[in-house]
Amino acid sequence: MKDAKLTLKATPDHQSxxxxxxxxxxxxxxxxxxxxxxxVENQAQLETIAAHLQGNIQALRGGVYKPRTSPYSxxxxxxxxxxxxxxxxxxxxxPVVTEVMAISQIDGMVAAGVDMLQVGSRNMQNFDLLKALGxxxxxxxxxxxxxxxxxxxxxxxxxxxxxxxPNVVLCERGIRSFDSYTRNVLDLGVVVALKxxxxxxxxxxxxxxxxxxxxxxxxxxxxxxxxxxxxIIECHPEPDKAISDAQQTLSLPEMQALVESLRPIxxxxxxxxxxxxxxxxxxxxxxx
Length: 288
Ligand code: PEP
Ligand code: MN
Prior knowledge:
The protein is of the alpha/beta class. The protein contains ten helices and ten strands. The protein has helices at about 45-50, 80-90, 105-110, 125-135, 150-160, 190-195, 205-210, 215-225, 250-270, 285; strands at about 20, 25, 30-35, 60, 95-100, 115-120, 140-145, 170, 200-205, 230-235. The strands form two sheets. An eight-stranded parallel beta barrel has the order 3-4-5-6-7-8-9-10, surrounded by five helices. It has a two-stranded antiparallel ribbon with strand order 1-2. About 50% of the residues are buried. The mean pLDDT is about 95. Bound molecules: phosphoenolpyruvate and manganese (II) ion.
């Protein structure tokens, strides 16, 4: 890390805040929860999530391009999904996060007005993609590579920042190990270390770490207790019917109960969870 120039703290209380819009900021006093399906399926799916979780999530996630292990699995709805995401954002006020897999997708995502671009684990060291994301100002959610060291993770963030985009949020999502009961091993040690070393916001994805629904609430509480700035969690109106990652996807009542259980933990570590929605939903959505 001797080379890192832009990601490391200058003073112990140096902390950057990454804004998704005028109301949602990551890295400040308020924790944030990003919720939504692994993959965007249709507009009703996202609007139902927004309506049920109003006040409990601060941003919506959903992949339109999916990095699937098998080329025969569902690859995402593609560009059509960008319109769906931003239509939902415009109706609900919730900023939207989606994964960018290739340089060629960046312009379309920026033009559509996506609020945050996710770099998936499999692309953490796609240096040309990182450089291209440095050329824009849209916030980037950089996920830790499947087997990336702390230093490799920090240097990947350094690529984006060195090319001109300071709006980087780090995401620990579990690393490969020998056990297969969980999908990955959630490395909370790295979360504490990243918070000590860097000024960047750090969030945790317990869904891709656990790979199992039943483990997500416990891992989420641990992440907040150890100082994470927020969470990104997969949820779906009908989790068993989710096109991808169904086994790790929470139902909307489970998601709501989980967020409620985080409030006292947030207070215990000197943080707060935003209360209530700041934007009224259109009436037909609010009553869903
Ligand atoms: C995802 O967020 O759906 C995803 C594919 O995550 P990761 O890159 O962490 O595997
Ligand atoms: Mn997923």
